[in-house]
Amino acid sequence: MSIEKIIQFVQSSQYEQMNSTGAKIHLLRQVIGEYQSSLGLQRLEWTEHGVVGKFLANKHYDMKNPQLFDLLENHGVLSKVVRIRLRQLNETEKLLLQKFSTAGNAYLRFTPIRGIGGHSEEELSVYRKNLTNKNIYDLLGQWKHYKRIYSSFVEQWESIRNLACKEMLRTNQHKVTLSVGKLSVVIPDPNIDTDAAYKMGGGKLLQRSGKINMEQVRLYAARGYFSLSQVYEHLYVKNIQTKYLLLTLISERNMMEGLVQQNNKYSWINIQSEATWKE
Fold first, then answer.
1. DSSP β-bridge partners for residue 177
2. pTM (two decimals)
3. Distance, CA of 199 to CA of 272 (rounded, Å)
4. Is the Cβ–Cβ distance between 101 and 190 less than 8 Å?
5. Which residue from 70, 80, 76 is spatially nearest to 231, judged by alpha carbons?
6. What are phi and psi of 77, to 5 degrees?
7. SS3 content of the chain, % helix, strand, coil (to 5)
8. In 3D, which of 101, 102, 71, 100 has the Cα closest to residue 220?
9. Using one digit for the tens of pLDDT, what is the confidence trace for 75-86?
């Protein structure tokens, strides 16, 4: 039944409309970003439209510094802040750690047949040319319009895909060929117990096969195991990428509130930890 809904969604042109509106949203964000960049403003708020544009600089760090791993290991938290990457393990290690692994969450991949669901590059080119005649407020209005439509399509599509994925797993089907394309159940790498991996191979194994989770690092810093300044001494910037965000003021407010709540959580943990250390 769920698989039939996939076919219906694609054949009813909703899939094509979803991709088309998604492409227009991307194009509008690019054009609005170019406008804001010409003004030299990092943040620009269009209050009457309830929209804000902002350029964010994302720093990408070298997370494989041996001194960073040593710091975390010396403070007894290395296995708590690292996630093992399966592809970095040899076959013997995979076999030994198999019983200490839990399956990742499966998801469904849809591959349409050629010519279905795509957007016309020619149509987008014409659309972009038409945008040059629009003022910034028209552009913002179109972005909000297509954003609402796209979100509705995506929500419906994700719901159908999730149900179809559960159905395929239940019937032990991992690949299904349809008239409109192919469905494939993708099972991510399993989650490996890092405590077990550490006991087996120590810090060297985790350094070779692990990826540091900075959120967990911040959590243990808040608990008083070490300071974030100690961590950043061993973090080297590989590159800085600038990203342009275009979002509603409500979304920005929710984002900021989430950051405030997260910082408050870390502050509370830090206060509680300091009280415990003093006992």
1. 182
2. 0.83
3. 30
4. yes
5. 70
6. -125, 5
7. 60, 20, 20
8. 71
9. 999 999 999 999
